[in-house]
Design goal:
Layout (H helix, E strand, L loop, with lengths): L10 H5 L3 H15 L6 E6 L10 E4 L1 H4 L8 E10 L3 E9 L3 E5 L2 E5 L2 H6 L4 E7 L2 E10 L7 E5 L23 E2 L31 H4 L3 H6 L6 E10 L3 E9 L3 E5 L2 E6 L3 E9 L2 E10 L7 E7 L6 E3 L12 E6 L15 E3 L2 E3 L8 E6 L10 H17 L2 H15 L2 H11 L18 H11 L7 H15 L21 E3 L1 H17 L2 H18 E2 L4 E2 L2 E3 L4 E2 L5 H15 L9 H16 L21 H16 L6 H18 L10 E2 L8 H7 L2 E2 L3 H22 L1
Antiparallel strand pairs: 1-22, 2-9, 3-8, 3-10, 4-7, 4-9, 5-6, 5-8, 11-16, 11-18, 11-19, 12-15, 12-17, 13-14, 13-16, 20-21, 23-26, 24-25, 26-27, 28-29
Helix pairs in contact: 2-7, 2-19, 7-8, 7-10, 7-19, 10-11, 10-12, 12-13, 12-14, 14-15, 14-16, 16-17, 16-19, 17-19
Length: about 725
């Protein structure tokens, strides 16, 4: 096979063979393209249409509008951003007559058969433009049905949320909608305001005159005499100096700066507080005690030079120009130092609740809008593992800190995500760990999380770790012999299958959870899985593994897919590093490791790489499986697991040299990484249909690990 690029563009040609230099380039490139970024906070209406557990928006119009007449129509409207022009798929489930328009073009019209069942999943596609795309859905009321579902075709990979399309609601999440009426003469357009559009849109997004005259806590929460409410804003000071906060109070009020009380009144009417503030950013907390008739306080801030003080939203909330967000009502007074926290639901007199905005029924919710940073999924988990080990090998504290920031952004919002899912149907963050139904959703990332915890204090990890351990041990489907398998899945074609991939999605986590708890049952379970998978999926002729085993048909597909086999050997090397020398299964597992290494070594090509289909040298040279074999071989040499250490040391080094010549260019781009796979009984699928992606996260982290382990192997052999 030809190289992915001209040899003169390889990182080896540009920078030589130095492993550390390659690791620097690749890790720097990844972080440069995926910088640390907070979640995006958006207003979201509790009176809007929610997403369900599959992350599709649900429009139950028969229940929403029980008085709607036959032949009346409801319109729902939103927008979706695309960074490029391309064709995208959407899932539609009609409950009745339903039309979908994207940028004014009808892409879907239901038929009677679909409307009759009310459960048909229909995949439709539309050409998205670069920038904002208008999505309009039209629902017709009939005696048979009314409403439908619309949204992502694959929620685990694309847990989309749509945004309100009008300037009046700019930045808010969710569809806006009409009440049942006659057909609109024209569809709304993104260049129209609500005042200019041909319909009146809901949910209501502004207070009426009567509500506006109330204190903000009354209009948000109603009357709760004797309860406390809190507002939070950021005070920005260009220089240190004196501030004056003044306003009018509807009830007893206190003001805190960074947890210190700077003003207070027990009366209604005028309020004024003078205090000194340091330059930079400070937390300003407003405390209001609910009276019998009203509660709240409207404030302005001025500096000693007479200029208006600058207040900003603590979370840069999109969809409102008000810098304050609100929490309450609390039965008891709260610690002003503890109030300014994002990512945790509050225990209020009305039950668990979260931050709200001063808009009707509007919550301030976090959403993930970056492709990788703060994303919880298994390939990103592997990527972070590679970065973490690279940080140690290169003595780069900044890399380790980046991994910690990523992990803690996920773990720190985990409790909130579970609450958000209950409140709104689907959370805006932590999509996979909040909706676990497979090993893919939890094991890989959680394993990296536990590895991080071994060296750096990590907030919020234990609750997730315990939940993942419980899922793998008690909830993940198993065959009668204990083999992990996929009985149900978000993708129907995965039902009743065993995948080599799942050895990585389970074993490294079980190993690290054993290290965390000391409970050997988790280690024993991890060890048994390899022997159970060997029984069903080993190919003696080649000393490699079949990718998939079909549990209902009791047959393996017989295809040695590269990365699937890489997961096996790499995961086995993770286990062997921890498995005690006297463990009853260690002998069998060590023999299995050696058998596999022998089989894989025989399939390495002349330039050092392994191929997408291991026994087909005409399939493309694949970078992720090559990296995993390199990593496992190097560990086998370093830890003395392989009797012919020289042979495998040479194979590992030759593989690394092959990667640096053929798969990594001078800028640190990684070519030849197989995309996320399906499965098939024919090798043609793996060879021709399952193509590669540039810089895919399935390969970046494991390539870093290959470099780290090769470097450690060479260092150990020099001693």
């Amino acid at each position: 096979m030809e190289n992915y690029f001209d040899a003169a563009r390889s990182i080896r040609f540009a920078d030589g063979a130095g492993i550390r230099r390659v690791l620097q380039t690749v890790s720097n490139k990844y972080i440069g393209e995926n910088p640390a970024h907070p979640f995006v906070f958006r207003l979201s209406s509790a009176k809007g249409f929610r997403r369900n557990g599959k992350y599709r928006y649900v429009f139950p119009l028969r229940e929403t509008f029980p008085d709607a007449k036959s032949e009346q129509l409801v319109y729902a409207w939103a927008k979706l951003y695309s960074s490029r022009k391309y064709r995208e798929s959407f899932m539609v489930i009609p409950y009745g007559p339903m039309d979908v328009f994207v940028n004014g073009e009808k892409i879907y019209h239901s038929n009677f058969a679909q409307e009759k069942t009310g459960s048909d999943r229909v995949l439709v596609s539309a050409e998205l433009v670069s920038g904002w795309n208008s999505i309009v859905i039209r629902f017709l009321k009939t005696p048979l049905g009314f409403g439908g579902e619309f949204g992502t075709s694959f929620f685990k990979g694309k847990p989309w949320h749509f945004l309100a399309p009008t300037p009046e609601r700019d930045g808010q999440e969710g569809f806006i909608f009409t009440h049942p009426a006659d057909e609109l003469k024209e569809l709304p357009r993104l260049d129209q305001s609500e005042a200019e559009s041909p319909a009146e849109w809901y949910p209501v997004c502004r207070w009426n005159a009567e509500q506006t005259a109330m204190g903000q806590f009354r209009r948000i929460y109603g009357l709760n005499p004797g309860c406390f409410g809190y507002g939070w804003a950021k005070l920005l000071m260009p220089i240190s100096g004196t501030c004056t906060v003044s306003g009018s109070c509807k009830s007893p009020t206190a003001l805190y700066l960074n947890g210190k009380k700077v003003g207070e009144t027990n009366q209604t009417g005028p309020f004024k507080a003078n205090f000194s503030a340091c330059s930079g950013e400070s937390d300003l907390i407003l405390e209001s005690l609910c009276g019998k008739a009203d509660w709240g306080c409207a404030l302005t801030v001025r500096m000693e030079n007479g200029q208006a003080g600058e207040l900003e939203s603590p979370c840069a909330a999109k969809g409102t120009d008000d810098p304050w967000i609100y929490a309450g009502p609390f039965a008891e007074k709260q610690d002003a130092k503890q109030i300014p926290v994002l990512g945790l639901p509050f225990h209020t007199v009305s039950g668990d609740d979260s931050w709200r905005a001063d808009r009707p029924d509007m919550y301030v919710r976090p959403f993930l809008e970056t492709p990788n940073f703060a994303n919880w999924n298994y390939p990103v988990g592997v990527t972070l593992y590679g970065l973490l080990k690279t940080a140690d090998f290169l003595h780069r504290d900044d890399l380790a800190e980046y991994v910690k920031q990523h992990v803690e952004q996920c773990t720190g919002f985990y409790s909130y995500a579970l609450w958000d899912k209950q409140k709104f149907g689907a959370p805006g963050i932590d999509a996979q760990i909040a909706a676990v139904d497979s090993l893919d959703d939890c094991g890989s990332f959680a394993s990296t999380m536990l590895e991080l915890c071994r060296t750096m204090p990590t907030k919020g990890y234990r609750k997730i770790a315990d939940n993942v351990a419980d899922y793998i041990t008690h909830k993940q489907a198993r065959l009668p012999d204990g083999s992990l398998y996929r009985y149900i899945s978000s993708l129907p074609e995965m039902k009743n299958t065993m995948w080599l991939d799942d050895l990585y999605m389970s074993v490294p986590f079980l190993v690290r959870y054993y290290q965390l708890t000391g409970d050997r049952a988790y280690l024993d379970d991890a060890a048994r899985q390899f022997l159970l998978y060997r029984e069903k999926m080993y190919i003696p002729k080649w000393k490699v593994m079949s990718h998939v085993y079909y549990t209902d048909r009791k047959i393996a597909n017989g295809i040695p897919w590269g990365r699937g086999n890489g997961w096996v050997l790499f995961s086995l090397s993770e286990l062997l590093q921890v498995l005690p020398e006297n463990h009853e299964l260690r002998g069998q597992l060590l023999s299995f490791f050696r058998e596999l290494c022998e089989g894989y070594a025989a399939m390495q090509d002349e330039q050092g790489m392994w191929h997408q289909v291991l026994n087909d040298p005409e399939s493309y040279a694949e970078s992720s499986c090559t990296s995993m074999f390199i990593c496992a071989f190097a560990r086998g040499v370093r830890f003395g697991w392989l009797p012919d250490a020289g042979k495998y040391a040479e194979a590992s080094l030759r593989g690394w040299n092959g990667l640096t010549r053929r798969s990594i260019d001078a800028d640190g781009n990684i070519y030849g990484i197989c995309r996320g796979s399906g499965h098939s009984f024919t090798p043609r699928y793996y060879k021709y249909d399952l193509g590669w992606i540039l810089n895919d996260t399935h390969g970046i982290g494991i390539l870093l690990l290959a470099g780290v382990e090769t470097g450690k192997m060479l260092d150990s052999r020099r001693k």
